[in-house]
Specification:
alpha+beta; 3-stranded antiparallel beta sheet; 3-stranded mixed beta sheet; 6 strands; 65% helix; elongated; disordered N terminus
Length: 254
């Protein structure tokens, strides 16, 4: 009885599944392959949307990257322009500083020249006159001492000698003070008159034309400072009548 019932149930199973044409009448492997292929096709169709989204995200990413790169290049260009402008400004300032330094140097030179001419020059000339006066006094005292000895005025010799010593000390002090500033007495070595460093105080007539323009005597020594004459030497010069124009200064005296 139980065997008949189970056989009946088994016979009923195909009838219950008669409407399912997809599974019955096929080999099991075919059913499996069809199921897998269907699942794969469905899966591919369902995965198309994430793939397109991923490609779109990459494109957006690169576009943003190129935009940032373009912005950076623009910033670099602006920075380059600023650097070039700054360099030009610095160069202009350097040229301005150099020009100001040159102007300052010229100003210092002018001030030094003015100071030497208007201040030091006056001081030097005053000290030189003091030294000339002390030398003249010394020479006069020496003559007085000789005269006193000749006339046997021995009582005047001692005070005259003391005065001469004072005059000598004054000359030495003035010369030492001038030497501190590079000023010294100097006589020219040339025997011909040089109007650039000498002045003529007297003309001495001569018949010898070879002596014309030559120095006859040196009256006063000149003063020089750093190879520049600040007071000319005073001399007497020979003048030949045959070569000298009457009433006109000699060419050597100009």
């Amino acid at each position: 009885m139980f065997g008949v019932k189970r056989a009946t149930e088994c016979n009923k199973e195909p009838a219950s599944h008669a409407g399912d044409q997809s599974d019955h009448g096929r080999h099991p492997q075919e059913v499996t392959v069809a199921s897998v292929s269907m699942d794969t096709e469905v899966g591919c169709r369902s995965g198309d949307v994430p793939a397109r989204d991923a490609g779109r995200d990459k494109s957006t990413h690169w576009r943003h990257a190129f935009e940032k790169l373009a912005a950076l290049e623009k910033d670099v260009g602006q920075i380059r322009e600023v650097v070039i402008s700054t360099a030009q400004t610095v160069s202009e300032h350097e040229r301005s500083d150099l020009a100001l330094e040159q102007i300052a140097a010229q100003h210092r030179q002018l001030v030094e020249r003015f100071y030497e001419r208007e201040v030091l020059g006056v001081v030097f000339q005053s000290l030189i006159r003091v030294a000339d006066g002390a030398r003249e006094l010394q020479q006069r005292l020496e003559r007085e001492i000789k005269n006193s000895i000749q006339v046997e005025h021995y009582g005047l010799i001692t005070p005259l000698t003391d005065m001469r010593s004072c005059a000598q000390m004054a000359v030495s002090d003035v010369d030492a003070t001038l030497a501190l500033w590079g000023v010294a007495r100097r006589e020219t070595c040339s025997e011909r008159f040089d109007p650039s460093v000498q002045e003529c105080c007297e003309r001495v007539p001569t018949e010898n034309p070879d002596l014309h323009g030559h120095i006859a005597a040196r009256v006063r020594t000149g003063y020089w400072r750093d190879d520049v004459p600040i007071r000319p030497e005073r001399v007497r010069i020979f003048v030949c009548a045959s070569t000298y124009n009457a009433g006109q200064p000699n060419n050597h005296e100009r």
